[in-house]
Amino acid sequence: MPARSTSLTLVTTVTTAALVVLSGCTSTKPSGSGGSSVELVNSGKLTTCTHLPYEPFQVRKGDAIVGFDVDLVDLVAKELKVTQEIVDTPFEGIQTGEDLNAGKCDLAAAGMTITPVRAKNLDFSAPYFDATQALVAKKGSSFTSLASLKGKKLGVQQGTTGETYAQKNAPGVTTVQFEDVALLLTAVKTGQVDAAVNDNGVLFEYVRKNPDTEVTAEFETGEKYGFGVRTGNDALRKEIDTVIKKARDDGRYDRIYAKWFPAAPKK
Ligand code: ARG
C-alpha cells in the first residue's frame, strides 16, 4: 500500500528532525524577562545565520564580522548573557527557513526583507530597518531606469527581493544571477553586466567606496528588514522585539545607525 508507507515515512522524518533540533537546545533566561526562557541551539551562544558580505549590515573585517545587524543582535545576546556567534551560509537556506528549521542557528540576521512568502516559512521580528531597491551602474552610464536597460544585462542577487523586482519590472532586459553581492558588484565594475539591482543601503555604501560607480535610480519598494526565527519560537522573537524597542527608546539604536550610516540624514 504505497499511500500508507508514504505517510509513515513522513512521520518518522518529522520526528527525527524535531529530536535533532531539541536535543541540542539549552535555555537561558533574559534578565528583564517575565520568566519565559529562550532555547538556544548552542549553549552559551546566540548563533546567527547570515550571508556575507552585505556591507554595512554584515561584513568580514580581519578576523571579525561587523555591521549594523551584528551590533543590533549583540544587544540581544548581551541581554541573554551569551555571546553572538555568526555562521556564514547561502542566502537561500536563510530565506526559506531551512537553516532555522535544521537548528543551524537561533536567528537569521541578513538584511532580510519581511515578505509574505518568507513569513510562511519562518517568523519575523518587528521591522528594524527600511529599505528600497536601487540601480547601480558605472559612473556616467546612461542606465538610469530599468527601461533604459532593454536588450542589456542586469545583474541580480539570487533569491533576493531585488531579483523578484527585476523579474517583474524589467521586461526585455536580460537578468544575470549572482550568488552574492560581491560577485554582483564586481560584475558591474568589469562590465560583465551593464547595471545591477540591490538594496539601497548596500549600494550607497558600495558607491561611496567605489567612486567609479553610481546609484542611478531608486525604486520605492517600501521594504522592511526583520530578524528571522524558527516558526513558533515566540520566546526568542519576543526577546528580540523587546531589546530593539528598548534600544530605540534609549538612543542605542540611533547611535548604531549613525555608526554604520554616517552619510544618511538623521532619522
Ligand atoms: N533585502 C534583500 C532580501 O531580503 C536582500 C538581502 C540579502 N542579504 C544578504 N545578507 N545577502 O531579499
Summarize the structure.
It contains 10 helices and 14 strands. It has 267 residues and is of the alpha/beta class. It is elongated, with a radius of gyration of 20 Å.
Structural description of this entry:
By secondary structure, the protein is of the alpha/beta class. Helix 2 (68-79) crosses helix 9. The model is unreliable at 1-23 (pLDDT under 50). The strands form four sheets. It has a five-stranded mixed sheet with strand order 6-3-7-14-8. Strands 11-10-12-9-13 form a five-stranded mixed sheet, with helices on both faces. It has helices spanning 2-23, 68-79, 91-95, 98-101, 116-121, 161-169, 181-190, 200-209, 234-250, 252-260, and strands spanning 26-28, 38-40, 45-50, 59-61, 64-66, 83-88, 107-108, 123-124, 129-138, 153-157, 174-178, 195-199, 213-225, 228-229. It is 39% helix and 25% strand. The protein is elongated and about 55 Å long. A hairpin with a 2-residue loop joins strand 4 (59-61) and strand 5 (64-66). The protein folds into two domains: 16-128 and 226-260, D-Maltodextrin-Binding Protein, domain 2; 131-223, Periplasmic binding protein-like II (D-Maltodextrin-Binding Protein, domain 2). The structure holds arginine. Residues 50-51, 54, 91, 110-113, 160-161, 199 line the site of arginine (ARG). Arginine binds next to loops.
Oligomer: single chain
Spatial order of strands in the largest sheet: 6-3-7-14-8
**Radius of gyration of CA atoms, rounded to a whole number:** 20 Å
- Counted up, domains total 2
Any idea of the CATH topology of the largest domain?
D-Maltodextrin-Binding Protein, domain 2
SSE order = HEEEEEHEHHEHEEEHEHEHEEHH
Bound compounds, each kind once, are: arginine
Low-confidence stretches: 1-23
- What structural class results from the helix and strand content? alpha/beta
Largest β sheet strand count, sense and barrel closure:
5 strands, mixed
Q: Determine the number of helices (DSSP H or I, runs of at least 4 residues).
A: 10
CATH architecture of the largest domain: 3-Layer(aba) Sandwich
CATH H-level superfamily of the largest domain: Periplasmic binding protein-like II
Summed over residues and divided by their number, the pLDDT gives a mean of: 90
Shape: elongated
The top-level CATH class of the largest domain is Alpha Beta
The amount of beta strand, in percent, is: 25-35%
